[in-house]
Amino acid sequence: MVTFHIITIFPKMFASYLNEGVLGRAVNKKKKIKINFYNPRDFVKNKHKKVDDSPYGGGPGMVMMAEPILKAWQKAKGKKKKVKTIILSPRGKLFTNLYGRRILDEYRHIILISGRYEGLDARIKKVTKGEEISIGQYVLSGGELPALVLIDAISRQVKGVLGDFSSVEENRISSGELYTRPREIKYKNKKYKVPEVLISGYHRKIDEWREKRQ
Ligand code: SAM
């Protein structure tokens, strides 16, 4: 079982994605993945549940305050010894499948800190020793989508999340071109057929064909 601890001020954003398809089955049926949420707003005492403030030294936008996030992080971490903390950031190291696999080799608890506004108070990184990870060279409005991207990609590599066949296939040959029924479709008077080799039943030839198209 792998547990993702998500620190976010928008926990409701996650439900529909995490409860459907492969991930939904992994969480609800197979119990291979567990998801916990920690909302920094639950850790502030002020009346308006404010978790952001203007930046010292001036500048545009607001900054997420360190204390509410650090309290949420402490709650997520509890007394667990081996916990990986990841801070979602467009300036971080680019996420890859290989990175995900390495995390899984070492950790069963992964804390994901989703930023909002202009980003996080820098002391959050200093205290948590979190690693900044980006999902691509573009800026999104928050770390919630990036957190979902990591959860999805990492969960697919947890044993038992994909069926045996799919996980073997995923590591083996995946073709850039996939076809299913019907064998022929028509668009604007032109016919588009499934390549003959895929219907031939010769698995060696099919593998060769797929390899060429990777
Ligand atoms: N200028 C800010 C910066 O460089 O961090 C942009 C902050 S962005 C509007 C708000 C939050 O969205 C970030 O703190 C981060 O958590 C998340 N975010 C945005 N783009 C991201 C990306 N490409 N990868 C990972 N996280 C991202």
UniProtKB/TrEMBL annotation:
Enzyme category, top tier: transferase
Transmembrane segments: none
GO BP terms in the entry: tRNA N1-guanine methylation
Domain of life, per lineage: Bacteria
Domain tRNA methyltransferase TRMD/TRM10-type stretches: 3-213
Example of a GO MF term: tRNA (guanine(37)-N1)-methyltransferase activity
Main subcellular location of this protein, as a coarse class: cytoplasm
Its biological purpose: Specifically methylates guanosine-37 in various tRNAs.
Cross-referenced HAMAP family: TrmD (MF_00605)
Family in the record: Belongs to the RNA methyltransferase TrmD family.
Protein name, UniProt field: tRNA (guanine-N(1)-)-methyltransferase
